[in-house]
Every structure is written in C-alpha cells, then in structure tokens.
Amino acid sequence: MGMSVTISAAAEKDAEQIFRLQYLCFQSEAALYGNYRIDPLVQSLDSVRGEVAADCVYVARLGEEVVGSVRGRVSEDGAAAIGKLCVHPRLQGHGIGARLLRAAEAALADERGAKRFRLHTGHRSESGLRLYRRVGYETVGTAQGDDGVPMIVLEKPATAYATTA
Is 161 helix (H, G, I), strand (E, B) or coil? Predict the structure, then answer.
C-alpha cells in the first residue's frame, strides 16, 4: 500500500529537512543562471529555523520525509510575500507545489490577514511561471534579486485563493 503526500504547517523539528530539501531543489534553478550563490542555496540553517518559528511555513510529507515546502509572511501593506516553494525532484509534476501554495495562501489570508499574494521567480523559471499563472497569478513587474538574478514579480488578490483549489 502506497503512502499519500500530506500537507501541514511546519514544526520546529522540520527545519533541517526543509534546509536540505531547499538545497537540493534549487540546484536546477542555480544551473539555469549559472549562479550557485542564489539566495536559497546560501541561506543558513539558523535562518531557516527562524523562518519556521516566525513565518507561515507549510510542508509536504511522504511519511516522515519532508518532500516539499513553502514560506510566506505578511508585510505592513497587507501583501503576503510567498517564497522558496520547492518539491523534491522525484515528486515534481504531481500537483504538490499547487497544494502547498493553496495551503500557504489560505493560512496567510485567513490567519494573518493578507490582502494579496506576491511572489518572485527567476525569469527563466518556466515551470514555476506556468504553475503561478495556472493558479491565478499575474505578472506585475520585474526586480533584481540580491543574488543578481532577474526576477518576475507576480501577484493575485487574496480573495482569489479559493479559486485555485
């Protein structure tokens, strides 16, 4: 009998698995840009622990293994910044990323009062762009990441999260 992937809020004990998963998942992103100093690859374990403690962090689990994660935080202007969405390479393409995104959106809107969702993704990240557009995000601009990677900024109203289910 196979196991199902479950989505839940991250716990403090998940920080190390999230850290390792993030490092694995963002290798392909780094390769797209020839830049292995992108933010997700240089983030420290202590920083991940801090995000798990303070932010809205969700994980996908296959048994006890964390196989996906996403983070979000609401800023003073009511926009929820969503980031570092990742799914283990062996499980990509099965809707886990969209499920993680929905869980984070729901919590950010319902529990933290987000008025809209905003995320950044690398301009060459075609699979990410497809996912975000499929679940209702629209391009609103561009930005330069601290790591030098050109980013596309996407947003959608928080009232739209239920329509992505």
Answer: helix
Q: How far apart are CA 36 and CA 142, in angstroms?
A: 21
pLDDT band for position 55 (cuts 50, 70, 90): very high
d(CA 59, CA 146): 25
The separation between the first and the last C-alpha atoms of the chain, rounded to the nearest angstrom, is 27
**141 — pLDDT class (breaks 50, 70, 90):** very high
pLDDT beyond 90 at 64: yes
CB crowding 87-111: b at 16 or more within 10 Å, else e: bbeeebeeebbbbbbbbbbbbbbee
DSSP notation for 15-76: HHHHHHHHHHHTHHHHHHHT-TT-HHHH--HHHHHHHHHHSEEEEEEETTEEEEEEEEEE-T
Residue 69, token pair as written in the block? 């994660």
Q: What's the per-residue H, E or C state across 93-133?
A: CCCHHHHHHHHHHHHHHHCCCCCEEEEEEECCCHHHHHHHH
Q: How many CB atoms lie within 10 A of CB 150?
A: 12
